[in-house]
Write a structure and sequence with these properties.
alpha+beta, Phosphoenolpyruvate Carboxykinase, domain 3, nine-stranded mixed β-sheet, 21 strands, globular
Length: about 375
């Protein structure tokens, strides 16, 4: 596939502007669909420029734009770098992916090169395998560059959590994939009239949380527990190749202003339902562990480690830990026991009881 004809679109997220250009129309259209509310015409002077290269031929026939590393010093087995450029020829974590980082004047430029060479067993496992790769590449094309820019320029951190708002305060539900974050938050929207802030990831600046508006991913089991029509969920036209999950969006998703956290829940499945207060230090360790165990954030840590090699910023790693700890130091934190056999109703009731009562005095609310 030729890499010379490039379409492009603009992206704006929390004041960060990005131009994304790509040689494959389907990938660009899929990205625009998933970035509901964030896209716009290309910017004249964006903060970031990302170029996506979708390759389909073997390396000997289509070497790709990062194949030539002359003039760069080798760094380990898979990287080449100079003072202003880094080429990651084998990301290792994602087969057939290459990344490039460089400065183009005052703009930071990123190259994302993916060679689509699916195995027969992957095509059999994922009927929409190409769209699955589109979904996977979204983080490298848009989310990771913007998150890194916000981290470096404003000290923001990414947290693996869903959130809903009541007024100008937010209820956070954090945990590993499959812990019930999305289902719990959608149930709070449908049954308690709250507003969805973010479904999978959020930004935290030490005082406020900010949304990362991605499609809502729900299993058939989760959909059976909630009234999707009452929640206003609409299917996303692109399935994304997510096995056992479907993608949904709310019909109207305004980009909400920053909200302050009211309470943080860390859910876990249990034979009975409960809410139990936990100390800030323990909550911080659990939240940090959840981030490390999450594929998206684990990949993000690898990604930013490469950028730290190229452009190190003294004190940045410690600042990230300090900001995360500020969340649990300033927000009441609870473990949330979820009895799946009881449905979402008791979970919502338990959360509301915790909010409307005296959260500091609640040690356990059992079903």
């Amino acid at each position: 596939m030729s890499s010379h004809r490039m379409r492009q679109l603009g992206v704006q997220m929390h004041g960060v502007t990005l131009n994304l250009q790509c040689n494959y129309d389907k990938l660009l259209d899929h990205t625009a669909c998933l970035l509901n509310g964030y896209t716009c015409p290309p910017w004249e002077s964006p903060h970031l420029v990302v170029t996506g290269h979708w390759l389909t031929q073997p390396p000997q026939d289509e070497p790709g734009p990062l194949a030539e590393t002359a003039g760069l010093d080798g760094f380990g087995k898979r990287m080449h770098l100079s003072a202003e450029q880094l080429v990651w020829t084998d990301v290792y974590r994602v087969k057939e992916l290459q990344l490039g980082f460089r400065r183009d004047g005052t703009t930071v430029a990123f190259d994302v090169v993916y060679r689509y060479a699916p195995l027969a067993r992957n095509l059999a496992r994922y009927p929409d395998y190409e769209e699955k790769k589109f979904f996977d590449l979204l983080r490298y094309l848009v989310l990771f560059p913007i998150a890194w820019h916000l981290e470096r320029t404003r000290g923001w951190v990414l947290v693996h959590a869903s959130a809903v708002a009541t007024g100008d305060r937010a209820i956070l539900v954090a945990g590993p994939g499959g812990a019930g974050k999305s289902t719990t938050c959608v149930a709070l929207v449908a049954r308690a009239g709250m507003t969805l802030v973010t479904e999978n990831l959020l930004f935290w600046d030490g005082t406020h949380i900010f949304p990362v508006l991605e499609p809502i991913r729900l299993t058939k089991e989760s959909l059976a527990l909630i009234d999707a029509d009452s929640a206003g969920l609409q299917p996303v036209s692109y399935r994304g190749g997510l096995k056992h999950k479907a993608l949904f969006q709310f019909p109207v998703q305004p980009i909400l202003p920053a909200v302050r956290p009211l309470v943080l829940f860390l859910p876990q499945f249990s034979s009975y339902g409960f809410v139990r207060r936990i100390p800030p230090g323990e909550a911080c360790e659990l939240l940090a562990a959840t981030n490390r165990l999450t594929l998206e954030l684990n990949d993000y840590y690898w990604y930013t480690a490469a950028l730290d090699l190229l452009w190190p910023q003294p004190g940045n790693a410690q600042r990230q830990l300090d900001v995360l700890q500020r969340l649990t130091d300033t927000t009441p934190c609870y473990t949330l026991g979820i009895d799946r056999s009881a449905g979402v109703g008791p979970v919502v009731d338990r959360i509301l009881q915790c909010l409307h009562g005296s959260p500091d005095s609640v040690e356990a609310v059992a079903s």
